[in-house]
Amino acid sequence: MSDTAVAPPKAKQNFRGNGGVRGWFGRQPTWVRAIVTLVALGLAILLPYAGDVPLIGPQIVTQGIDWPSSLFNMSYYVLLALGLNVVVGYAGLLDLGYVGFFAIGAYGTALLTSRDSLLYAHSGWSWLAAAPVALAITMAAGLILGWPTLRLRGDYLAIVTLGFAEIIRIVATSTPNFLRGDRGFTNIPHPPGQGADGKPIFGVTDATPYFWLGLAVIVVVILGVRNLDRSRVGRSWLAIREDEEAAEIMGVRTTRFKLWAFAIGAFIGGLGGVLFAGEQGFINSQTFVLQFSILVLAGVVMGGSGNMAGAILGGALISYIPDRLRGISDPFFHTDLYEYRFAIFGVVIIVIMVLRPQGLIPSRRRAMELKDREKEVAPL
Amino acid sequence: MNFSGLINDFGPLTVTGLAQGAIIALFALGYTLVYGVLRLINFAHSEVFLLGTYGCLIAWGWFGLDQNSKAPNFGAMLAYMALGLVVAIVASGLTALAVELVAYRPLRRRNAPPLAFLITAIGASLAISETVGVLTHRNQRGVPPIIQARTVITIGDTHITNLQILIVVLALVMMFVLDRFINGSRLGRGIRAVSQNPDSAALMGVNKSRVISLVFLLGGLMAGIAAVMYDLKIGVTKYDAGFLLGIDAFTAAVLGGIGNLRGALLGGLLLGVLQNYAAGLFGSQWLHAAAFVLLVLILLFRPTGLLGESLGRARA
To answer: Which domain of life is it from (chain A) (predicted)?
Structure first.
């Protein structure tokens, strides 16, 4: 390190010029980073009690929905955003039917465990036993959808994935015996476990344990995805995203790594679905509307696609903002503001893409790619 | 699977399919035109259509017409039709231009990656359809009986109504006019030039921005006409009407060869008929699923569509 030889320009000496918070974080020794991470995690664990904080607490918690439930919603949205971020942000594949995988995870769980299911003989499976099977089904679905479609151009892929989610919804609404349409599945068991007082940990009244479960899953997913991103797989994704043809010429097996991205995205989406089914105990075909996938996409783009911190922030916001708006009516039409959520996020997507295409917390590499393209701009 | 149903209703299913296909074809032109020039899927085109369906209803509403009013006499019918068409075309055309201006132009300036265009288009689509959804409380709105469907031709047990004939004829006429415009006029030559090679066209003095706006406008006009036909045929519209039919229209455009005008017509008619056969075979709830399955199959086996891609090469 011979950084004393050339004095850096003065403008670069301020905090922002040195990379802001993330730059500071990156320069700290490992133990400081570990402490900061643990403190952040600890604060996240304490979130269900945020309402007890004086002054700011009551501003944060939601009114129209109880706060732990809202936190649990946030946790599975964050999970979905993390999964979609792998597909859209890392591999650069636009998947508009992500809700399809969420639905497969939830329906897989329901089919194996619920008393309403065709597969139910004398006793259903427990939630914990059903979860890995449901996840395997979801991953297989990702591979089955990905294998024929990933050879397509990016914009065609978007439409085909959209169609996939729509077909799942149509199948769910029009098979009264298999996926049971509007009647749906009841009595999906909750996750196992008993507290010291003999009551089940995962009950129906308090969503706090579910939030902690979701948080734990998120941490595991973050660690897994981070390792993948820094491996050969992650570098291949990067190459495919920047220039697929060049990547192929350099020997990257593009279809294989795109399939990987798809399957991992599907797995994480399915994980969200399994958690969701376990918490709700009931799902029907109304649960999985298509706007849902677009909402998650909005979250990833808003937070900063290709960056996990961005995906987490985006995923949390798309869940938190509408939940916070619940129970507040607008002054003109007296509609619950919650009704406007999709319209608002539609506008947000446009504004972000036009003004700050790299998102709220941009991936640095991604920001450089965008800048690079701007230089090549053709005269209009 | 209901094979006897399909065979017994073969005639009626074909006729319904053709009328539906004509609407889809007009709708699909918007996708094809924009794709031919910009090489991107205008996802917000479904909302261009949606505002057309509401535009003509609102115009008829000015004259106190709603779904319960009586059918007007022939002269009034012509006047109402003209009014509805004009208002729908204006509504759709302006929406298309606005989408181009707000969602596409800023990105084009910055040479954003193709994915970015798609994402803003989705944002625009979501914003428009959901705003309509909130304003209409997500209820459907009935259409006044401007044209009473009457059977005018009967072949065997197949009854063909005046409305079905009108829809198919209007679609064919509009296709012909548009085809002449693109292949015969000076502005059309500009469109073909930009679609062949945008940079060379710009160097030869074609105003690229204007051509792009023109293409969006033309797509909007066709969607406006399709919207009026849709209103009259289906009898109701709803905030998600554009989205569902938009998928069909896009499939039709890909089926015929996206970027190819005649392909859009062929693809639309073919898709309409095939969808109705599928509905006869499996039940009507599978109509849209059939479109998706067909789309995947085309993309796998013949991604350039039946007539091949490219607006510019259509004649050359």
So the answer is: Bacteria
